[in-house]
Amino acid sequence: TSGERTAKAERMFELMDGFLKNDPLSLQKDILDHVEYTVARSRFSFDDFEAYQALSHCIRDRLIERWHDTQLHFKRKDPKRVYFLSLEYLMGRSLSNSIINLGIRDQCADALSQLGFEFEVLAEQEGDAALGNGGLARLSACQMDSLATMDFPAWGYGLRYQYGLFRQVILDGFQHEQPDYWLNFGNPWEIERVHVTYPVKFYGTVEEEILNGEKHQVWIPGEMVEAVAYDNPIPGYGTRNTITLRLWAAKPSNQHDMEAYNTGDYIDAVVNRQRAETISSILYPDDRSHQGKELRLKQQYFFVSASLQDIIRRFKDVHKDLNQFPDKVALQLNDTHPALAIPEVMRVLVDEEHLGWNKAFDIICKIFSFTTHTVLAEALEKIPVDLLESLLPRHLQIIYDINSFFMEELKKRIGLDYNRLSRMSIVEEGAVKSIRMANLSIFCSHTVNGVSKLHSELLQTRVFKDFYELWPEKFQYKTNGVTQRRWIVVSNPNLCALISKWLGTESWIRDIDLLMGLREYATDISLHQEWRMVRRVNKMRLAEYIEATSGLKVSLDAMFDVQMKRIHEYKRQLLNILGIIHRYDCIKNMAKDDRRKVVPRVCIIGGKAAPGYEMAKKIIKLCHAVAEKINNDSDVGDLLKLVFIPDYNVSVAELVIPGADLSQHISTAGHEASGTGSMKFLMNGCLLLATADGSTVEIIEEIGEDNMFLFGAKVHDVPTLREKGSTIKVPLQFARVVRMVRDGYFGFQDYFESLCNTVEGNNDYYLLGADFESYLEAQAAADKGFIDQEKWTRMSILSTAGSSRFSSDRTIQDYAEKTWGIEPCRCPL
Ligand code: NBY
What class of enzyme is it (predicted)? Predict the structure, then answer.
């Protein structure tokens, strides 16, 4: 009765202390409680790791409060929501980020220091959450931060891989992969939802059923696993809003193999059930593609099915009429990896909700938007029909139905142009009949986004030309961005304080356009001094890290020149290494007196190669072989050092980026869809040495060519240069450095042969030879610039000041307005 209910509510309020308090004393008390009751150590004796655990739980409690309030607020307001579907997220560490977004950094540091701990030391205890490969996955993480900060009603969905991206270990200069046991020491940043589970089904057959006199297709699945939700709260900055990243783990279901129990042996049946967990056990470490793997397809469907059951349940909690689904739900496909969501929603609407096919398809076209992250037609995902037919027979039927409808529509528009029809078809005929996931995604989405202006032009004129000509209105682009909360506030606290001091406000942390205000002080001598001081301290931190990990001592007066990203032929780490060999060769051949004029450099390279990518692995080995030679040459000394930083990940990036003077983004024009590393370096006042590729084109628009070192062929030159092939005039220096590698100057002659072959004559697909001269000129310009410290500092300030357009806040604002049609929903304080 209502009387009882009020009494109960009153009692609850009496018992509640109010919200957790954030003064240092309350924090201390909570930390010690967690030491005792969560970590189960004595409060009189616990180490740094245990202190990290206790502090994390204390922060987790605070996140949970805000998160409950946010979810309740969203439920009450019932706004249109966006669901971000991605198979990859590179979250990195959470402690510092959470504390800063909660606005309690100083209080925590105080509380800890009185207990005899140092905040920075505890933060270092945390391992990275590396549930992704590279740019695409870190972009998802940055966008979650912006969605939360800007109060959007958003949910992220993903997979909770037991093993994230492999650890890179270097032995004798070769990359070895080791498993990433990131969950072994517990994960305080997730909340296991044992009651939020859904069955996910696979295999089986499709049968026809008559229902109310009408024929229906029904899927009779053969296997079932359970998806369990793990919620990761994502706190916004300067707001109470805390949104959810929900990751699914696979667990055996009570009815896994629907027959085994009747027929088989008990032990086998149980062991078999355990295999269900393999679905979410491991992240595929290839950032190009892995086509035709059954486990990968299972992962994709497992993810899609669980997420959609959850999304539809949440909708149906409040609404009865599925026709309203598009008014309340936007589904964002992060590349084609989650594109099975399209046939899955169709299946639910048609087979389970019994909507008419046309009505269902109409809904589909209103809810999906698709972002692609690649430039290359070859990299587009294809699923072999055989595989799909055995794993998801009903989905294959639905895709065929969609394709028939698509082909009919197309014929109305373009007639019987069979070449074009077959290029555009969702089904690819050929040796291996397969489904083109991009074609499916484009046809069924209301909007197709590229990730930079140049990328979008290439999509429209090359990759998806056929589609663009018919549906130009579908095509948009949202230039990528990165979050200044992680990439300045968390990772570069000194620069953060300096910016706030000069702008007279911290508001730029939420309102990035204010950063442009720094332009006004670009020539101010006292800012210059403070700016250089901050940069020097960051370089010191980086130098200590280099010494600790590689034993190499580097000079702080040298230019720190960094290239850190996944290793790929198109990203041209090899061009960088050949340039370093050239620099070395010049120093060796110089008169002793001339060496004094050389600008000292510390060249830093880092990044992982996909385990099966042979050339990328050879590039890593070459880097080590060259480093071995240079670093031990007494003629060279501090003039040139080469360091490979192993196991590049988000935390390493947080340390390296603030300490870099120069960073390289040197892909062959037309190959990097956007690039986001460059934006992080830019924000931190590092100068760029780059080709006019991906988002760099827009960076040039923003800061001007004069404030960076631009080189190389332009997109439109590339096809002509490729046609010219071996008739291009390649500079002598290029032939010389390749020859040095070929002739075994750095050892491992046989091993490097095939690598050398890739850049000679007609084989030089990525145009290293053609771009070499212009690359060396840009490097010389950088040397010259570095000597003029005043000019360099001005360029550095203007880089930071010009980075505001590359905040993920701007990207998300654009998506919200132009693609998803959602509005902020701010939880009251
Ligand atoms: O996405 C990257 C692009 O190369 C980069 O230019 C862009 O800035 C970034 C964000 O838009 N792409 C990328 O990181 N791709 C992958 O990591 C990836 C992962 C898995 C698969 C393919 C690509 N796969 O086939 O599963």
Answer: transferase
pLDDT in tens, 528-546: 999 999 999 999 999 999 9
| Spatial CB neighbours of 762, under 8 Å, sequence gap ≥ 6 | 725, 726
How many residues comprise the chain?
829
Count Cβ atoms within 10 A of the Cβ of residue 732 and give its class: 0-12 exposed, 13-18 middle, 19 or more buried. exposed
Residue minimizing CA distance to atom 20 of ligand 1: 287
- Which residue lies with its CA nearest to atom 1 of ligand 1? 136
Instruction: Count CB neighbours of 646 within 10 A.
Output: 17
Cβ neighbors of 203 (< 8 A, separation 6 or more) are 221, 222, 223, 390, 391, 393
Alpha-carbon torsion angle 486, 488, 492, 495, nearest 10: -160
Residue 373: CB within 6 Å of ligand 1?
A: yes
Q: What is the pLDDT of residues 768-788, one digit of tens each?
A: 999 999 999 999 999 999 999
Angle between helix axes 614-631 and 573-588 (nearest 10 degrees) is: 20
Please report which helix (H) or strand (E) contains residue 750, including its range: helix 749-757
- Whether 287 is in the pocket of ligand 1, judged by its Cβ within 6 Å, is yes
Query: Pairing between strand 640-645 and 475-477?
Result: unpaired
CA 129/CA 186 separation, integer angstroms = 12
pLDDT of residue 256: 55
Find the 748 Cα to ligand 1 centroid distance in Å.
32
- The C-alpha atoms of residue 747 and residue 324 are separated, in whole angstroms, by 67
- CB 684, CB 658: distance < 8 Å: yes
Please give the angle made by the CA atoms of 555, 561 and 565, to the nearest 5 degrees.
Answer: 130
Task: Classify residue 173 as left (phi > 0), alpha (psi -120 to 50) or beta.
Answer: left
Q: Which residues contact 639 (CB under 8 A, 6 or more apart)?
A: 587, 595, 598, 600, 601
Are the C-beta atoms of 259 and 163 separated by less than 8 Å?
Answer: no
| For residues 820-827, average pLDDT | 98
Q: What is the distance in A from the centroid of ligand 1 to the CA of 139? A: 9
Atom of ligand 1 nearest to the CA of 672: 6
Stretch 442-449: mean pLDDT, rounded?
98
The larger pLDDT score, comparing residue 275 to residue 812, is at: 812
Cα–ligand 1 centroid distance for 371 (angstroms): 11
Give the distance (Å) from ligand 1 centre to CA of residue 114: 45
Active site residues: 373, 565-566, 571, 676, 680
- Mark 83-93 as b/e (b = at least 16 C-beta within 10 Å): bbbbbbbbbbb
Nearest to residue 451, comparing CAs of 288, 135, 673?
673
Cα–Cα dist 501/306, whole Å: 47
135 lines ligand 1 (CB under 6 A): yes
Q: Which residues contact 820 (CB under 8 A, 6 or more apart)?
A: 80, 82, 330, 332, 369
* Ligand 1 mutation pick, 287, 298, 449, 564, max ligand atoms within 8 A of CB: 287
| pLDDT band per the 50, 70, 90 thresholds, residue 260 | low
Of the candidates 491, 496, 520, the residue with the CA atom closest to the CA atom of residue 508? 496
Phi, psi dihedral angles at 409 (to 5 degrees): -60, -45
* pLDDT tens sequence across 146-199: 999 999 999 999 999 999 999 999 999 999 999 999 999 999 999 999 999 999
Q: Where are the alpha helices (DSSP H) in 513-645?
A: 525-550, 573-588, 614-631
